[in-house]
Each structure stands twice: as C-alpha cells, then as structure tokens.
Design a protein that fits this description.
mainly alpha; two-stranded parallel ribbon; single chain
Length: about 525
Amino acid sequence: MVRTLLRQRKKTLSAADVTVSDRPTVRRAVTAAALGNTMEWFDFGVYAYLAGTIGKVFFPSSSPGAQVVSTFATFAAAFLVRPLGGLVFGPLGDRVGRQRVLAATMIMMAASTFAVGFLPSYASIGFAAPLLLLLCRLVQGFSTGGEYAGATTYIAEYAPDQRRGFLGSWLDFGTFVGYSLGSGLVTVLTLTLGADGLESWGWRIPFFVAGPLGLIGLYMRLKLEETPAFQQEAANEAAARGAGDGDGDTDPVEAARQSGKGRLREIFARHWQALLICMGLVLLYNVTNYMVTSYLPTFMTVTLGESDTTAQLLVLGTMLLVVVAITVVGRSSDRWGRRPLFMGGSIAMIVLAVPAFLLIREGGILLPAFGCVILGLLLVCFAGTAAATLPALFPTRLRYGALSIAYNLSVSVFGGTTPLFASFLVDKTGNTLVPAFYLMVAGLIGLVSTFFLYETAGRPLRGSGPMVETSDEARALVARSRTDAGRHARDVWLRLWHPLGGRGRGRTPRDKD
C-alpha cells in the first residue's frame, strides 16, 4: 500500500497532456511569423543603407557628420516608443490572443513604412519634412514593440520541444533576408541611378515596396489559428473564472489577476530575475545586430572613407553569411543546448571585437571582408538561438507581455541607440576602435546573463505540456513518464526502508514480522 501511494505522488503524463503538432500548421505559423520580421528588417536595411541620402534629403543644412547623427537620431527615436508598444501589445496578446495582435502590428508597420516613400523633402516644405519622417518612425517603433516578442512567442508555442531551436531560427532567418533584400535593393539603385538620382527620387522606391510585402504578410497572418498553448491557457482561465463561486460570477481576486495591471504587477514581482536575464541576452544580440547592420555601412563610408558600393557589398555579404548559417546554429542549439552557444559567443565577442575592427579599418576588400566575416559569425551565434531561448524564460499566461517588456526595454536603451552612440563617440573621440569597445562591453554583459540562464533545449515551455511531432513520440513519452514514476517510487521506497543504502541498520517490512 505504501508503495502504491508513493507511485501516485509522482505525477505521470497522460495522452491528453502531450500535444502532437501538425506539420503543415507549424510550417504556416513559422512562415507567417518570419514574414513579419522580413518586413520589419527590410525597412531597417533600407534606412541604414540610405542614412547618408536621407540625411541630405531631410537635414540638408547640416554638415555630413551632423546629417548622419540626425538621421540615426530619427532612427533611434523609433526605439524610444518601442517599450510603450510592448506595454500595450504584450499584455493584450496574453489576453486576446497572439494572432490578433500580430495582425494589427503588421498593418501598422507596413502602412507607416509605405508612407515614408510619399514624404516631401526639406526643400519642399522645410522643417515639417523631418517632423513627418519622425512621426512615421514613431508609428513604426510603436507597432514593432509587439512584433518580435509576439512572433517568437507564436513560433515557440507551435514548435515541438526537440526542434524549437531550429524552427525558431527561421524567424531571424526572415530578419536577415529582409535586411539583405532592403540593402540589396539600395545597392542596385545606387549602381544604376548614381548618387544624384538616388537623392532626387530613387530613395523612395524601397519604401514603396513595403506596401505589397505588408499585404502579403497580413493575409498570411489572418489565416493562422491561435497556438495550442494559448488555447489551453485560455480554457484553464475560463474554467477558473467559472468556478469563482457557485453561480458562475467572476471571482474579484481572479479578475484582478487576469487584468492588464494584474499581469504587469505579476511580471515585475515574480519574474524580475527572468526579465533581467532576458534583457542581458537581448542587449548582447541587438548591440551586435545593429552595430553590423545599421552602423557598419555608415562607419565604413563616412568614417573610413570607403566607397558606398564597397561598404554596401561587404555588409551585404556578411548578411548573406548569416542567412546561410542561421538555421544550422538553430539546429545545433537543439542538440548542444542554448547556454553553450550564448556562452561561447559572448567570450568570442570579448576576444575578437577589436581584431575584427582592426581588419575593417585596413581598407581595401580582403582584410575588411575577414573582419566582417568575424562579426557575422559572432552575430549568428546569438541570432540563431535567441528566438528559442527568450520565450522559454516565462510562463504561458505572461509570456507575450513579459517578453515584450524585457525585449523592448533592452532594445530601446541599448540596441536601437547603438548607431547613434557609436557615431557620436567616434565623432567626438576620433577613435575608430570605439565600436569594438562597445561590442566588448555587450559581450561581458551577455556572459554574465548566460551564467544565470537555465538550459531549456528539448524541454516543454513553462506553463505548457510537452509538444512532440508524431503520435508515436507521444506514446513513447507517456510510457517513459510512467517508467520514471515507477523508478522514483522504488527509489523512495528503498530510502525509506534502507536509509543507509543497505549498509546500516535500516529495517524492511519483513523485519517487522
């Protein structure tokens, strides 16, 4: 009887506890989420590569250095409102669903990017032109506040536990494809139109492309269903509200807990450690990301004096390297774990940042190409792992909101301001290694954050049951759970009756008789 009771205390899995994913549905979910990131980073690639041209169009009275700083200040302004977007869209996504919020962010993001292409220049309407540009960037930033966290949450909640790293890496695959498409389009326009044609009207073309991309992404997202994890959590919350009292009225305590303010209070009160870890990892990833994708083209042309074409081709090649390697890194994180990749990348960042920039500032093609390859390999260590790591830090009922807050605070304060701070410090100090020192600090913060990160590879998300690909895997998992429960009961039984491992005077039931 005692052994039976011990077996019952160890909870085993049933078939209902294990979710079997539907491959076509997972494929559609990954594609729709990645397309949103493609749209977002298409805009970033265009803006980074057109920084000099946009500076001339909207800030013509400034010096070349001041034009770059002004352009990146407008770029950074979009990141200042991202936390507001995260505070709005994140908890909303936990309450009404991931799919609805992701559709709304896609509409706002596509419309604001498309509108930039219609803005009049400073020569046409004066100071109102940069103000309109700033307005469009603010709308982009606000909508983006709910985009990445929602997309990573969506993919993570659809992905089988053993393939979450690989499937999540496709989200950032879309990121760098979008950047490559945007930067590649600007490179082609620069070669065909020349500097004068680009400044006159050619800069508008990439922003016009955002409209059709947004419509395609919106169509795909409207066709999606909610994630199994959210559906289960919504059912549990509905049951809890229905059981509030005998007549079915909502329990006031439970209602307060489920409200937006209640969720925010719970995030900061109970999950502050996970928030800090998430912010540290996001800082590491995004400082590296924006240093390479947004600042490096301008650093090579304005600061080092390289030609626009050379700088654009080098950075574009770096992005293509990341695109090729990113899903390999994602698959590797499923096999080796998330912590080793973040840990190794952080250490490599501290050691290799200065050598990479020493190579880049040598000039020419070959040595800067080696420097860009180093930065690209460092970047892909974080890009291929982040989408599977960050959502696993938080439970299902708070995942979208907590991740939105942590991600957007870190990106706004550290990531999106990287081009602005780097260009400002280089301009004031004259030291072209300042970007490398900036990366080294980010690597150190990432190393500390990774030290406190617990491994999540191959494990269910917090607050959710196991997710597998096939029914055979589900049956095997249930059987293994029962076997483990039996072994646990046996071990407890032996410890009760043989507390010294058989070497002491522990008594058995037969000794009693």
